[in-house]
Design brief:
CATH superfamily: Macroglobulin (MG2) domain
Strand order of the largest sheet: 1-7-6-3-4
Strand content: over 45%
Largest sheet: 5 strands, mixed
Number of helices: 0
CATH class: Mainly Beta
Helix content: under 10%
Oligomer: single chain
Shape: elongated
Length: 113
Amino acid sequence: MPLLPIYNERTDFDLDVVLVDKDGDPLVPTAIEYSIHDVESDTTVKDWTAFVIDHEGRGTIEVLAADLAIIDDESDYETRILTVSGTYGDAKEFHEAYAFRVKNLKSVPKDAE
């Protein structure tokens, strides 16, 4: 099993997205959105949210500090799944998942926004 990337709790990061079709050409969806789910608690951290892909098939998802808030203070790490879902062409669908871990720093104020 590959090691998952680790991000510190309540720390913003950008996830760059590049979409290509089966021939390697840029894929520009007609609709695209993402959500973030916490695995251990089975909690939706961020509900489905649209984002923009440009004409070259590139976009950026801004993961906010609030999306990396620790749910269980007793956990050293929590696993999150960011799922991208979209449509293109004649109602063709695509789905992709990005897994990462959130490190509990134990000293970050829990009410910080």
